[in-house]
Amino acid sequence: MDLTTRYLGLSLRSPLVPSASPLSEKLENVREMEQAGAAAVVFHSLFEEQIEATAPECRVDPKTYLEHIAKAKRTVAIPIIAQWKWAEAGYNVAGIDIRGFGRSAAAVPAPSRWGYVLTGIESPETSVLRGAVCDYGRTMQLARDLFAGQTARRLTYGFSFAGGLALMAEALWDMSDLLVLGVPTFGWAERRYFLVKSGSGAEIAHYLKERPEATEDIMLVLRYFDAVNFAGMVSCETLIGLGLNDPVVPAETVYSIANHFAAPCEIMEFPVSHTALPEEQRWEEFETRWLALGRGESKLRPLRVAKSRRKKLDGG
């Protein structure tokens, strides 16, 4: 039986991928996971509180952590997933588990039963999205301070849900030389929920179907976080990727975001995104493109969407 699959642009022998856990802290555990059939191993994130901890037993040195990842890669033949490919390409990398996910799950102790994105939907001030955007912005500040004097350019990256957060955070904090958005969500609030087939947009559509009396109040909050409203505030160069066939982030919503950029913006179109189809492999081109742009090895190719499409997609 052929169990090969693709994950994060990697070709794996099976879908068995142990997630981040304390097991990865010891090389012998990583070796045993490979022998047990793991196709790759995800390493945990490095957190701000670990870097800045006052207690020696809680402190983690970034250099030591990177050396541990390097040793793990030499120990096993399977991929070690820790944004290592980006580090090998010359990048200093800072990642985040936004509140409600991974090791930050405890920050959202009672997510909405209707779906994560509907947590605190009663107002912009209580919405979980407000906190998630702040988490992203704080990470950008931490990366700036952590890598001060070690970088020539700053790049902010986000894919799908994180793409929407990255866009909003960059618009508010204005800290990047290049913004990279893979199928950014939260665009075109009024129309998005009629187009999606799965994901957070579908959860919202289901909620509004069951509680139509709340539509006006909910849409007021969602418009507050509509990525379209933030696009024009971005001042740095931006690379956007989209899938022409995407059940989670429809291409129409991404075009709507792109149409509102005033800063230089390049769009890369791919056949699909958020699917299990073999055409997903084309997204490796997107990563190759932004890695080159970030290193200054290539120049952005700004692309504007035709006015006829702009009028249609923006509902005019």
CATH topology of the largest domain: Rossmann fold
Give the name of the CATH superfamily of the largest domain.
Alpha/Beta hydrolase fold, catalytic domain
Helix content: 25-40%
Q: Main β-sheet: number of strands, strand sense, barrel status?
A: 4 strands, parallel
For the record, the CATH architecture of the largest domain stands as 3-Layer(aba) Sandwich
Which CATH top level class of the largest domain fits? Alpha Beta
Structural class based on helices, strands and sheet pairing: alpha/beta
Q: How many domains in all?
A: 2
Rg, alpha carbons: 20 Å
Instruction: Encode the helix/strand succession as letters.
Output: EEHEHHEHHEHEHHHHEHEHH
Which segments are poorly predicted (pLDDT under 50) over 5 or more consecutive residues? Answer: 305-316
Mean pLDDT, to the nearest integer, reads: 85
Separation of the first and last Cα atoms: 52 Å
Q: What is the molecular shape?
A: globular
Strand portion: 5-15%
- How many E strands? 8
Q: What is the spatial order of strands in the main beta sheet?
A: 5-6-7-8
Please tally the helical runs, counting DSSP H or I stretches of 4 or more residues.
13
